[in-house]
Amino acid sequence: MAGGSIPTLHSLEKPENFKDVLRRDQGDDCLPCRLIGSGAFFGLAGYSYFSGMSQLQKQQAQILQSKSIFGMRSRKAGIASISFGLAWMGLWRLMN
Asked: Which residues, by range, are in coiled-coil regions (predicted)?
C-alpha cells in the first residue's frame, strides 16, 4: 500500500467532523478566486438592475394598461431586490 497503514473498520464507519472538513476546504480559496467571483456577482447585480429598469420603462404603457395587480412600483421593487441580493452575494464572496 502507498500509505503503509490500513485504517480500522471503526475509523471507516465514523463520520468525519464537519468543522474539520470545512477547515481543510477553506485553504483552497485564494484571493484571485474571491475577486473574480465577487466581480461576477457585482456585474450581474448591475446588469440586472439597469436592464430590468430599462425594460420596465419601455413597457410602462402596456403594464399600466393591463390593470395588473403588480404595478410599476412592485416590479421596480422586485428588480431592485434581486439586484441588491446579487450585490450582497458579491460582498459576501469577497469577505468570506
From this structure: none
